[in-house]
Amino acid sequence: MGIADNYSRGRRLLVERPGQALAAVVGVLLVLALFADLAAKLGSGALGVGDVVLLAWRGVVNGLVIGLAGVGLSMTYSILNFANFAHGDYITGGAFVGWAVAWLVAGLGEYDIGSLLSLGLGADVYAPQLGTSIFGAPLALLLGLVAAGVGAIAIALLIDKLVYEPMRGQDGIALLIASIGVAFILRYLIVFVWGTSVTSVADEAGGLRPTVGGVTFSFGYHELTLVVCAVVLMVGVHVLLQRTKLGKAMRAMSDNQDLARVTGIPTERVIKWTWIIGAGLAGVAGYLLILEAGTIAYSRGWILLLLIFAAVILGGIGSVYGAIFGGLVIGLADSMSIIWIPSDFTKAAAFALMILILLFRPSGLFAGRTTA
Amino acid sequence: MSSDTAGSGSAAGDEPTAESDASGADTDAEAPASATGRDDDAGVTATGREADEVGAHIDGTPALAVKNLRKTFGGITAVDGTSFAVEAGKMTGLIGPNGAGKSTTFNLITGFNRPDSGQVLLNGDDITGKQPYEIADRGLVRTFQIARELEEMTVLENMMLGPQHQSGESLWRAVTPGVRSSVKRDEEKVLERVWEMLDFFDIAHLAEEYAGNLSGGQRKLLELARALMTDPDILLLDEPFAGVNPSLENRLLEHVHELREQGYTFLLVEHDIDLIMENCSRVLVLHQGKLLADGEPAEIKADERVIEAYLGGEVE
Amino acid sequence: MSVRDYLDRLTGTGRADTDAGAPGDGAAGTDLGIVVGLMLAVYVVFVAIGVVLGYDTNGIVNALSQVTFLTAVYALVVLALNLHWGYTGLFNIGVAGFMAVGTYTMAMATAAPDARVPGLGLPIWAGIALGMAAAAVIGLVAALPALRLRADYLAIVTIALAEIIRLTYLSSAVQTFTVFGTQLGTGGGSGIGIEADPDTVVVEFLASVPGLNVLFDAFGSVLSGMGVQQSVINNWYYAFVLLVVVVAYYWLLQRIGHSPFGRVLKSIREDEDVARALGKNTRLFKIKSFMVGCSLMGLAGILWFGSYGFINPNTFLPQVTFFVWIALIIGGAGSNTGGVVGAAMFAAVLFELPRYLASIAGDTGGLPSAPPTFARAVGALFDLEPLAFVAYGIDNIGPLRLVLVGVVLIVLMQRRPEGLLGHRKETAASIGLSRPNRSRETTDATAATDGGEEQ
Ligand SMILES: Nc1ncnc2c1ncn2[C@@H]1O[C@H](COP(=O)(O)OP(=O)(O)O)[C@@H](O)[C@H]1O
Ligand SMILES: [Mg+2]
């Protein structure tokens, strides 16, 4: 793809879709204006470099969680053809399972099993007592991580069996509505077991505080853990989808389900694997999110869901890299827009961005480029 | 452009594209130099002219004309600079192998797709890029290749939908006490026509049936009947006989002929060449988006390139 | 399931009726029968349970008024949503947002200028009109670009819009603000009181109408004679008023549905391209349908949440939208009667009944105290104390009830997506469509000469 090619693409866009071209120009100008404003704010001292870096770092951390969870949503959206409104609750479900296991391992023998599995709901055990940080209980946290993925996968497969499999022939809207039912079941079973309170489950771990040029930065160890895990998993998914037959089959199925079936792709198996990868990443994302945030609550994933949808739509439904990129954009937008707009509106701004994408470029920002 | 509303089955390939949404500024980039569409087609020139003279409107304007129509989808050129005219009161056939661009031509004429370039003239007026409803309003009504009946509506409801500008289509008239009685009176008039039309097409016994329960052939009948309820001047029928059993096909043909005698103009897309040759007074042949031939059935039958293209098309 | 059989039977007769008489007018008798029968059945169940378990009269009557209130308010929103989804096929899951706009606008318009959250101090009727208008306008703003989207995209856009609306009301930036020199406010996170609380205002108004007040007094004195508290009696008054509004909504939406306008909406739901090919300006129809539905949602929000006397942004969580959707699906989208039945089933059976049972069980005692955590409750099971587990369940009936809601929704989508009432033939026309007498003669004539040339 040469420059000339790009150039003619651009020209065609101008001629064929003046509205979109205009929107793109306005968008670019807006971003430039924002950066100019940022530079001015930095120059005038209204904002320090450290503040900006901190916001950007927070944006990256949140964006990776959104992107990691978004991969699964994007895959199920394109392969099973429906918007899964229960995806957020897979995230929460995985997080609770993972943390219950982490607590169990960390406190086994010392504390009552029931109290541990209840995540201290009975006010009889606390995170600092267990030392549930990556330094305090690394093994417990690692096992919890695995359990979060496995738990979410188990939930997803069970639900697929009971709910979606009998509905395979139905259209996306019926499945979407059913997924709302699934969301209710999962969320309120979680409430039934763990209640509605916000409980602190991860212990403090501190962080790196390097000073560069007189400005002190701060990177929490749990944040760093999250970033490392998320990047490793994303690379893993990339390898899985690029190097294996499964990846090829998935791409074929998201392109054309019927054709894939005719050409002998074992669609049921691909669907199972879609759930396994998607839910596994969702569960782990939820677990890491709680590790970094410190507290857990039943509505954690649900609150995140619309942002994940925003990321997936931004990146183009069905695109794994799009979901990751979209996650980073949404994460950064959510955290950094506070520089320009009141903090009350940062989430609203992310939703508004998603609506604009759906209205003007429903195939995502990278439409036309086939990825996994 | 939406289409999936209640989530009924999707017709792959008929997905309307986003292009048709762009505002009206970007059409008609190049004015066609020669608009006859016969410049590459020396063989039929003479008769082509003759046909023009016979079928022309009183003022010489054809009922429908397209000029240098072009449409691409990504890399595919579906319609490639096609020009032709349809004479009023005649039955014109449009044939061509699968993928020749027949349905796309229909979509371009009826406003479902926006042409990249070219013009559509209805009784001499430029209707290029107008909305489908505006075009239907001007008396040009189409049917779809895959019969698109409104499945969960009864045959009667389907038919009642046809007439345009019904007083009760206005929301306030439909609900306001007092005014509604005039709506009811208008509906009674429509209803009478509906039953006449159902009788004409011999589907009155299906009146209470859901359209989704009809057989393929019955759906085609219903679709034509429903289109007629709009009181059109020109009907564009996309493969109206596909999937219709022979006896029903004959009946449908009879109806079409009868309607033509009453003054309706028809443009008919059909797969079956023989059927077109027997029933149309003029035949257009489309091949790879281009108009290959345009003339009376006899000439088309004798046209070497048509035979070649068709055989090529049929074989693959 | 006996309820379903019962409904099936009723619908069976309903279907026969529809073909005979004018739709919307003729079948109304049976449909009314379905709804009234269902409500009576619900009342009987509630009373029976209350009596058997020894619940006091005040409690039973209060529960019944609660059931009636919830059924009515759900019916209002469900009917409005049915116009969007059931008739026009517009997948709107931003219902809570449109209700928020209606209710907030009304609250801000009617709040006194010197209240904690200052408002315009307008009378309630003006507030209601403004609320409905505002919801319609927001509906228009959403409709203009979004109604051409695919159903699932429209769903995401509408739920995101509803969240944007909620977050905006939540924002401290608009807690109080000044336009044209007038102080106004939303109250931000701490909410806003509703000065002209519809239930008080409406009930006071009714009590002042000669004739009606006698009726209300008589009803009230009968109940208070049975030991029912005045507040419960007032709830009943308001519930009656709401039922009247439900009838008005039903009447309006039946008229819309059974008209050429409704016929075009239905055709858009089935296949928008066909409607366009037949010369219908579908965009305009969709916008109208959307705006009308939104303003009806706005009014429903006012009558529902407004009557609580106080709202805050979390009154309008996406939850609310999903509840309304589930009610619509239970009854069967596309049918107004189905919508009302769904509202009653959802509000009474899924929502109130479990809570009612639990509160009776809690009151009547006999159960051990509930363990504090689920783990303890499970532990109690191992200690062969199942009653402790039951007590935990009763203590946590709130979430269990919502699990049940989810299960019901899934089972319906799998087994009976057309709703409890099944498929209903509701002809979209203002008149009966049977063959008019005059043309029957001409047909007979045609039939006689059939085979030759017709006409
Ligand atoms: N909406 C569309 N998007 C992409 N390609 C299309 C679309 N509609 C038609 N085409 C392509 O245009 C060509 C002409 O199709 P069509 O007009 O349906 O042919 P016909 O009706 O003669 O069989 C085909 O190659 C078809 O795949
Ligand atoms: Mg075709």
UniProtKB/TrEMBL annotation, chain A:
Pfam families, A to Z: BPD_transp_2 (PF02653)
Transmembrane segments: 21-40, 60-83, 90-109, 134-160, 172-194, 219-241, 270-290, 302-333, 345-367
UniProt keywords, alphabetically: Amino-acid transport, Cell inner membrane, Cell membrane, Membrane, Transmembrane, Transmembrane helix, Transport
Biological process terms in GO annotation: amino acid transport
Primary location recorded for the protein, binned into one broad class: membrane
GO CC list: plasma membrane
Membrane-topology descriptor: Multi-pass membrane protein
Compartment(s) of residence: Cell membrane
Domain of life: Archaea
Family: Belongs to the binding-protein-dependent transport system permease family. LivHM subfamily.
Name of the protein: Branched-chain amino acid ABC transporter permease
Organism this protein belongs to: Halobium salinum
Taxonomic path: Archaea, Methanobacteriati, Methanobacteriota, Stenosarchaea group, Halobacteria
Automatic annotation (TrEMBL), chain C:
Main localization of the protein described in the UniProt heading: membrane
GO CC terms: plasma membrane
Keywords: Cell membrane, Membrane, Transmembrane, Transmembrane helix
A Pfam family hit: BPD_transp_2
Subcellular locations according to the entry: Cell membrane
Region (Disordered): 431-455
Membrane topology label: Multi-pass membrane protein
Origin: domain of life: Archaea
Record's compositionally biased regions (Low complexity): 444-455
Parts of the chain that traverse the membrane: 32-54, 60-83, 90-112, 124-144, 236-253, 290-311, 323-351
Protein name: Branched-chain amino acid ABC transporter permease
Organism: Halobium salinum
